[in-house]
């Protein structure tokens, strides 16, 4: 199996829901509540296989986190999470290298399938 999946979301409920779905599919999950903590987790776990990141984070937005991740780990897949589908944000995320986009509430089974495709 691959390295851990990093979940970055300011909602403890969302982090728990993602962890439950991913752990149930055999993945290891590390998480963070904001962008700086997410970057710290990437430093602590240099084998992270994929990042699931909320676009609206405190202290450092998801787009800024995505940009910083890709400055140091250009091939690391990042999938964005959001409560709405703002076409401008979607375009900015894709331009910055996001590999996918899920709108909350998401279907856990579909999210696991997307993760499986991206880390295969």
Task: Please characterize this protein's 3D structure.
This protein is an alpha/beta fold and 120 residues long. It has a domain at 27-51 and 67-78 and 95-120. It has helices at residues 12-24, 35-44, 62-72, 87-95, 108-119, and strands spanning 5-8, 29-32, 50-54, 78-82, 100-103. The radius of gyration is 13 Å and the shape is globular. The mean pLDDT is 93.
Brief summary of the model shown:
This protein is of the alpha/beta class. Helix content is 46%, strand content 18%.
Q: What order do the helices and strands come in, and which of them pair?
A:
Elements: E1 5-8, H1 12-24, E2 29-32, H2 35-44, E3 50-54, H3 62-72, E4 78-82, H4 87-95, E5 100-103, H5 108-119
Parallel strand pairs: 1-2, 1-3, 3-4, 4-5
Helix pairs in contact: 1-5, 2-3
Q: Which structural category fits the helices and strands?
A: alpha/beta
Evaluate the radius of gyration.
13 Å
Please estimate the helix content: 40-55%
Principal-axis shape: globular
Distance between the termini: 9 Å
Mean pLDDT: 93
What are its keywords?
alpha/beta, 5-stranded parallel β-sheet, 120 residues, 18% strand, 46% helix
């Amino acid at each position: 199996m691959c390295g851990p999946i990093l979940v970055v979301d300011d909602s403890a409920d969302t982090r728990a829901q993602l962890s439950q779905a991913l752990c149930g599919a055999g993945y290891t999950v590390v998480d963070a509540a904001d962008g700086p903590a997410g970057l710290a987790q990437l430093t602590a776990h240099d084998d992270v296989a994929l990042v699931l990141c909320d676009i609206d984070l405190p202290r450092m937005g998801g787009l800024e986190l995505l940009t910083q991740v890709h400055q140091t780990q250009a091939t690391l897949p990042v999938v964005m999470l959001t409560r709405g589908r703002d076409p401008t944000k979607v375009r900015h995320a894709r331009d910055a290298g996001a590999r996918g986009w899920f709108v909350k509430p998401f279907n856990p089974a579909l999210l696991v399938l997307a993760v499986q495709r991206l880390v295969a």
